[in-house]
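Note to self: keep these together.
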Amino acid sequence: MRMITKYTNRGLTWVDLESPTQDEIRKIAKDYSLNALVVHELSAPTLKPKVDLYQNFIYLILHFPRLRHNKEEQDQEIDFIIGKKFFITVRYNANETVHLVSKMFETSATLDKGNFGPHAGFIFFLLLGKLYESLIQELGSVRTSLRSIEERIYNGEERDMVVCLSEVSRDLLYFKRSIALHRAVLESFEIAGKKLLGEGFAFHLRTLVGDYTRVEHFVASNAEFLSELRETNNALLSTKQNEIMKTLTILAFIALPAATVLSLFQINTVSRPIVGMRFDFWILVLMVGGITFGLYTWFKHKRWL
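Structure:
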């Protein structure tokens, strides 16, 4: 779906482009004096985050993860162009958070209430803060999944939880990889933001780094919880497997003497005691049963069973 929307609020302009065409990008570039390099970057998704400072704007690229419960497992790129009086966002997929903040901006202008600040940097500050909040909500869903896995582990479903733990581990690794470069980009943006938007914006720039740190902390917390659950699950699986092996070994040990006795009576010799006597079959059954019962009683006495 291709869409371009424009909002204005007290002298500030926000242009939001979703999957823009080349003509739309060129038009925006002409209206806001964007150079050819930025136009090229906006034409297609970029693999790595970056931040560049130009004479009248800052160009910023960030990638945000989307987990499997959103039915997508690819990074979502958002390009930000922050001028003093204009703010441009370019994305290639729908984003609920961007839509929500744009509606807040539009509603504020319609009702003539609220002030997003003297320059467009405050729009970026609000939007990025909301994006990080949405990532924390995603991580909250991961934590809920881990709690569910923990409960199922202690309900005896250790074997099934191996796959579930691997899936959560993949989600966290993907999440961590997606935001790995955010800190470096935000620190560079902090320097560029002070130059373009003034020292008065320094506190908000530092707050954005703090917002990212919270996301980073949630990722680390979930990863630590996952690691502990995996160790617990592996220990319970190992214990259960050891119990099974012990039981099988004891059963084999009990069966061995009985099988040995029966094998002796199968030897074709001239003299075979019991064989040929009246009730010889039942005598052998009682003999084997007695040996088996005696060994079983001994193992129970030793608490090996």
